[in-house]
Design brief:
Order of helices and strands: EHEEHEEEHHHH
Strand order of the largest sheet: 1-4-5-6-3-2
Radius of gyration: 16 Å
Number of helices: 6
Distance between the termini: 42 Å
Strand content: 15-25%
Number of strands: 6
Structural class: alpha+beta
Shape: globular
């Protein structure tokens, strides 16, 4: 990427991907992998990351998940790609998603997704509160796992379609999570 590159919002780089969705039992190696990737990201960004968190299902002990570690990186301005994308590319990540306020990079093996958003943004808050809620609430954690296992049995044209199919549950659970957060903080 050079300063002459055009940045277009809402782009799925490489187009849609048809991949089999595999849900596996919780792996105690996922937090270890997260820590390794977090260190790699911190080194690459040399202080630009305000926070680096483990999000997604692999961050919830005991929850079955796709074997993809999701990393949330909060930066000052995610739309200023030139500040952080080139160092992450040099660290071995590939840019996959470009949308206003959010970028997603991943490893070539596609087993780590790095989500970059603005520090303190609603995007970050929703993902962290949802994660924390699933860590706390066994009922929603079980229901989410059952939904994911059921959806994984279907044939999806794109991984994003699988994610979209979970939105009703995620929205309801996030609403409960936000109510919990407001009551406890």
């Amino acid at each position: 990427m050079t300063s002459g590159d055009v940045i277009r919002p809402g782009v799925l780089i490489g187009g849609r991907e048809r991949r089999r969705i595999e849900i596996v039992d919780y792996d105690h190696g996922w937090p270890v992998r997260f820590r390794e990737e977090a260190e790699r990201i911190q080194r690459a960004l040399d202080g630009q990351a305000r926070r680096v968190d483990h999000i997604g299902s692999t961050s919830v002990p005991g929850l079955a998940a796709k074997p993809i570690v999701d990393v949330l990186v909060q930066v000052r301005d995610p739309d200023d790609e030139f500040a952080y994308v080139p160092p992450l590319l040099r660290a071995g990540y590939e840019l996959r998603v470009r949308e206003e306020g959010h970028r997603m990079l991943r490893t070539p093996a596609r087993d780590v997704h790095v989500h970059v958003c603005e520090a303190g943004s609603d995007w970050a808050y929703r993902h962290l509160v949802f994660r924390d809620w699933l860590r706390l609430d066994a009922t929603d954690r079980r229901a989410y796992e059952e939904l994911k296992r059921e959806l994984a049995q279907r044939d999806w044209d794109d991984m994003n379609d699988y994610a979209q199919a979970k939105t009703t549950f995620v929205a309801a659970a996030t609403s409960r999570a936000e109510a919990w957060a407001l009551a406890t903080f």
